[in-house]
Design brief:
Number of helices: 0
Mean pLDDT: 88
Shape: elongated
Structural class: mainly beta
Number of strands: 9
Oligomer: single chain
Length: 98
């Protein structure tokens, strides 16, 4: 876990956040700071398209996960399949800088 400056638009607990080359999930906000969890299993908002179990998962600019690598940032791996119509995907974050 790291503490860093919260984005100007704010952030909610459980929301994914790409901070430079670090991806994490917000767990607490305190004033102008935010704590990001860098490792673990998380249920994250998913964009369009299915994601297969074991597939690499990427973060899109519009704050959702996808299996599409082009133009997106690798953040982890799917631990379960997520159907195209699913709103979320279960993702394992390794804590590595991207």
């Amino acid at each position: 876990m790291i503490r860093t400056t919260a984005p100007a638009a704010g952030s909610e607990s459980g929301q994914g956040l790409l901070y430079g080359a670090i991806f994490g999930v917000a767990c607490a906000a305190s004033g102008d700071d935010i704590e990001l969890v860098l490792k673990g299993l998380f249920e994250l908002a998913k964009g369009m398209g299915a994601i297969g179990a074991g597939a690499k998962v990427y973060w899109e600019a519009d704050s959702v996960v996808t299996a599409t690598a082009t133009g997106n940032t690798l953040i982890g791996v799917a631990v379960a399949a997520a159907a195209e119509a699913a709103a979320t995907a279960r993702v394992r974050l390794s804590g590595a800088a991207v």
